[in-house]
Structures are given as structure tokens and as C-alpha cells.
Write a structure and sequence with these properties.
About 20% of the residues lie in helices and about 50% in strands. With about 270 residues, the protein is of the alpha+beta class. A hairpin with a 2-residue loop joins strand 12 and strand 13.
């Protein structure tokens, strides 16, 4: 009996070994592989917002400010909000179309209940992280703003085999971002980890290279996973982070999304 189990274990190990060798023998940087990935990402990004049902989730934001170069923590605050995503029907030129809208209602700050939903957290924020980062990089109309390359090696992220897709902004592009209320031209360098089996993005991260005066660096990262809403699963953000560095301070923001729930009842939002 022990001999049979040993043979079975050795056979399993051997199959796993050859499977790994087969994966490593592939060339991730093959042009056809890159095209296949971009097509899959475009399809997913194009339908991302329209495929979502109305939902609610908890968004927890941790904001921290550190002194340079000592690294001393100067300020920290935790803001918990209710995030509501809704599909609104809009009529334009006689046509009805869906328009995805995000609403946030602050519930507590540093553990204390906040009554006013008009409160605006101080400090840096990751604007539009819920859908904009995925859409602005990989939607079919936005991919033209970037040059894409595949890393020559496979990578592992959260236990999954992944392609590492690198991107840089083209000199002429239509991307922009907001900083302190100002709209600025975007020039990025970044990368995304794409699941080799499902071709879904597990993580997107990038840095802005064209910075306003006084800012030394600005970076973003978003992690995705499948989340159940009702009877279906959707690829949604589960965590995001941003960091911008000034001459004397480093500011960091971490956002976590949890307790996703689908709802069908009307919710009054102002």
C-alpha cells in the first residue's frame, strides 16, 4: 500500500514538474500573446461599468503623512464610507443609455460617527480608483494612448501565474489627471499583472512622470479580485494605494473595499 502511494506521489510530482517546465518554456513576449492579452483586457474594460448591478460596499481610507527624511508619522486618519454604485438611465438625443455613478457617504472618522455626508476628507485622495484606472488604461479607445510590452519572464502574484504587462504613455495622448483641483496632462510608466489562465488584471500600478511644481513623485496601485454580487461574480477592486512625495513630506493613502452587496431597492442619495 505504501509503495503504491509513493509511486502515485512521485507521478504527481513529475507531472507538476513538467507542467512548470512547459510554462517556463513559453515565450511571454510573443507578439501574438501580447495582442491576445490586450484584446481580452479591452473587452473586459469596455463592459466593466455596464455589467455591474446596483451595489453597496464599505470603503475604508487610511491617510498618513510622514516627515522627510526622518520618516516620523505626523498625521493619520481613518475614514469609513458607504460606497454606492448605481446604473442610471440617461436619455441623450432620443437614445437611452446606462451611466454608472459612484456615491460616497462618510460614516465615521477615526471611529467617531459623522452625521454630515457632505464632509470632505483632508489630504490626498485616489480619485476615480474604483473604475477609472482599469478603464483609462485598457478600454479599447484608451489603449492607443500607451505603448505595451510583455516581460520576458512569467511572474507569480497572490499564488497565480501572471504575465507582467509594461506600459508607457505615448508622447501624444489624451490622458489627464487632477491634482489640487488642477487638470494636468498625464505621462505614465507602469505595469500590470495579468492572470495567465483568465487574462484578468490582478494588479495595476504606475507613476506619473509629468508632475506639478513642488511634487517629487506620484504613484498609484490597484488590486482586483472576483467578488460575488447576488448570484454572479465580478472582477472588482479590493484595495488601492497612492503616494505622493513633496520636498518635506511623504503622503500615503490606502483604500480597502469590503462587504460588497447587491441591492435592488431604491436608496435616497444626495
Amino acid at each position: 500500500m505504501i509503495e503504491k502511494l509513493l509511486k502515485k506521489s512521485l507521478l504527481t510530482i513529475g507531472l507538476c514538474f513538467f507542467a512548470v517546465i512547459a510554462i517556463l518554456a513559453q515565450n511571454p513576449a510573443d507578439p501574438e500573446t501580447l495582442e491576445k492579452i490586450l484584446v481580452a483586457l479591452a473587452s473586459r474594460a469596455d463592459s466593466f461599468e455596464k455589467s455591474l448591478p446596483d451595489f453597496i460596499a464599505t470603503e475604508t481610507i487610511l491617510q498618513e503623512s510622514y516627515q522627510k527624511p526622518s520618516g516620523k508619522l505626523l498625521e493619520s486618519s481613518e475614514i469609513v464610507s458607504r460606497l454606492t454604485g448605481r446604473q442610471l438611465e440617461l436619455t441623450k438625443k432620443g437614445r437611452t443609455q446606462l451611466d454608472f455613478q459612484e456615491y460616497r457617504q462618510v460614516q465615521s472618522i477615526n471611529g467617531k460617527t459623522v452625521k454630515s455626508d457632505k464632509f470632505k476628507p483632508r489630504g490626498p485622495q485616489v480619485d476615480g480608483v474604483f473604475s477609472s484606472i482599469l478603464v483609462s488604461h485598457f478600454a479599447s479607445r484608451d489603449q492607443k494612448d500607451f505603448s505595451f510590452d510583455l516581460d520576458t519572464n512569467f511572474h507569480i502574484l497572490r499564488g497565480r501565474n501572471t504575465y507582467l504587462l509594461k506600459f508607457t504613455s505615448k508622447i501624444v495622448n489624451q490622458q489627464y489627471y487632477f491634482f489640487e483641483g488642477k487638470r494636468l496632462a498625464s505621462e505614465q510608466v507602469g505595469q500590470a499583472w495579468i492572470d495567465t489562465e483568465t487574462l484578468v488584471p490582478l494588479r495595476i500600478e504606475y507613476q506619473e512622470k509629468k508632475l506639478p511644481k513642488g511634487l517629487e513623485s506620484l504613484s498609484y496601485a490597484v488590486d482586483y479580485a472576483y467578488v460575488t454580487l447576488g448570484e454572479d461574480s465580478f472582477l472588482l477592486p479590493i484595495e488601492a494605494s497612492s503616494e505622493f512625495v513633496e520636498k518635506k513630506f511623504t503622503n500615503r493613502v490606502n483604500q480597502k473595499y469590503s462587504d460588497y452587496k447587491k441591492f435592488s431597492t431604491d436608496v435616497k442619495l444626495e
